[in-house]
Amino acid sequence: MSEKGERRAPGRRKHGLTDQMKALATSALSQKVGYLRVEDFPDAEMFNDLPTQAYSPNRIIRVKGVLLLVKRGLVEVWHPHHDLLVKKLTIGAMFGDMPLLGQTMVVTQAVSGPAGATVGVMNAERVRELINSNVDSLAERLYPRLALAEAEHYRAIFQKADSRLAALLLELAGEGSTVEGIKQAQLGERIGLMRETVAVVLNSMKKDKIVGIDRKKTTILDRNALEKLSRL
User: Fold this and answer.
1) pLDDT tens column, 112-130
2) What is the DSSP letter of 97?
3) Which residue from 122, 132, 126 is spatially nearest to 97, judged by alpha carbons?
4) What are the φ and ψ backbone dihedral angles of 164, each rounded to 5 degrees?
5) Residue 16's pLDDT is what?
6) Secondary structure of 155-209 in HEC code, one letter for each residue
């Protein structure tokens, strides 16, 4: 990092990740960082008088111990070690390192966009006020994500690819029997698998007559077998 706090590419040390693995990591991080927005809070009046901090273009935004709201411009979220753009946060998006609200940057870094950015700053005290004023809406927004994160964490550590994919298909199908409009690569991004791995697993399930495959459509043929597989 330069003295002025500009983002710069990492050194030459290689981590060993393939381009596909980097793409999977980027997709996963984009779902975990900066997902709250102002419209998620019915009682959002306190956002109007937040102290603000302005950043000139391409500056690292300090997030330790604060929750930030994009007021002007654009904030980019980068994976600094791989120099990958994870996502762009527009006006109304919230981000930062505030465990009190379940917010973290994971391994990413926030950088002001090409035209700069202005962010509203909330310390722990302001965040507590925000929580107290929006308890019900926050519970509906965050608790399901917490449950999903716990399930995904278990599956990533202990389950094999076929069990993880079975659980995802059941989640996407809901009470129905089909999963449509989602490519194999997108299925893989959801659970950290390569597209080629997803294809192999789906073909195995098709051979066992658990699912049927037709282009972008996957049909559950044996829900009991799929549910059993998802629990292995």
Assistant:
1) 999 999 999 999 999 999 9
2) B
3) 122
4) -65, -40
5) 59
6) HHHHCCHHHHHHHHHHHHHCCCCEEECCCHHHHHHHHCCCHHHHHHHHHHHHHCC
Cα(10)–Cα(25) distance, integer angstroms: 17
Identify the CA nearest to 78 among candidates 146, 21, 138, 8. 8
Domains of the chain: 19-137 (2.60.120.10), 159-230 (1.10.10.10)
182 and 159 Cβ atoms separated by less than 8 Å: no
What's the pLDDT score for residue 7?
57
Strands (E), 4-152: 52-55, 67-79, 84-89, 94-96, 109-122
Q: Burial level of 99, CB count in 10 A (0-12/13-18/19+)? A: exposed
d(CA 110, CA 25): 17
Q: Which of 120, 88, 112, 94 has its CA nearest to residue 4? A: 112
* Residue 192 C-alpha from the chain's centroid: 12
The token pair that represents 168 in the structure block: 């995802």
Token code pair at residue 56: 């000139």
Query: Per the structure block, which two tokens stand in for 71?
Result: 């007021």
CA distance linking residue 159 with residue 154, whole number of Å: 7
Contact 220, 213 (CB under 8 A): no
pTM of the model: 0.72
